[in-house]
Design a protein that fits this description.
- This protein is an alpha+beta fold.
- It has one domain: Alpha-Beta Complex (Fumarylacetoacetate hydrolase, domain 2).
- About 25% of the residues lie in helices and about 35% in strands.
- It contains six helices and 14 strands.
- Helix 1 packs across helix 2.
Length: about 260
């Protein structure tokens, strides 16, 4: 993909994100590599309006989530600082086109994982974790047809991310059986979905390794202090209007969000 076409695609992504208008499949983005190149260019411009990148999110770590958005492998997006909130946040429903709530585990890195020629191991990425927390990823279906928009376009648009709500951070315990942690999603106090850490590529650390390796292959690293939201353990719960959301992750606690 030539530079002019890439610049046009990035400009289009920025315009749609800032205006809230729906994104159509971008036929010029034919590969995931082109999608990531577009993401990097678009995010430089978006950071001027939304603040610096504070974290990463993974889309499609659960097979059911991949089927929902029509992709064959997980994808990675960036999260802007102004869209990161603490538990208890109250956000306007009208800010989003079709908001969805995802029940997640997030980790924050305590040391850098720089780009390098050799692949990382699961043990290396686990050793870089400082804290762990329950998290809500707020996604937004800002597409003409979510299932048909395609992986490269979704990548360029940060894989539907609209924000992250982070729970209390706990020191990471390597002995914690993350794949066995149960999770619940509640809407206005009513349980609507359940899942477990095993939905995240079999184990949350495998999801983190995916994110690190994806960045490494792009020639990018991860800096200490960055958080990574590891994907949803349940299908997104699409909001039909204002409501209160609560997620509970065993051993990690709860996170609450109100769309008003």
């Amino acid at each position: 993909m030539d530079g002019e076409a890439l610049a046009r695609a990035a400009k289009e992504i920025v315009a749609h994100r800032l205006s809230g208008t729906p994104v159509a499949r971008m036929v010029d983005l034919a590969t995931l590599e082109a999608g990531y190149a577009c993401q990097r260019l678009a995010n430089r411009a978006l950071a001027k309006a939304l603040g610096p990148v504070a974290g990463l999110k993974i889309g499609g770590t659960a097979e059911a989530a991949r089927r929902l958005i029509g992709i064959e492998q997980p994808i990675l997006g960036e999260v802007f600082a102004s869209t990161v909130h603490a538990s208890g946040a109250r956000l306007p429903f009208s800010r989003y086109r079709r908001p969805g709530i995802e029940t997640e585990i997030a980790v924050r890195l305590g040391r850098d994982l720089p780009a390098r020629p050799a692949p990382y191991t699961r043990a290396e990425v686990a050793d870089a974790i400082a804290t762990i927390m329950a998290a809500i990823e707020l996604v937004d279906d800002r597409y003409e047809a979510l299932a048909g928009v395609g992986g490269p376009t979704l990548v360029a648009d940060n894989a539907c991310n609209a924000g992250s709500i982070l729970g209390a951070e706990r020191r990471f315990d390597p002995a914690l059986a993350l794949d066995r942690l149960g999770a619940r999603t509640l809407v206005d106090g009513r349980e609507v979905a359940t899942g477990s850490g095993a939905a995240l590529l079999g184990h949350p650390l495998e999801a983190l390794l995916f994110a690190v390796e994806c960045r490494r292959r792009l020639g990018l690293g991860l800096e200490a202090g960055t958080f990574v939201s590891l994907g949803t353990m349940t299908l997104p719960q699409w909001a039909e209007g204002p409501a209160g959301y609560r997620i509970e992750v065993e051993a990690l606690g709860t996170v609450e969000l109100v769309l008003v």
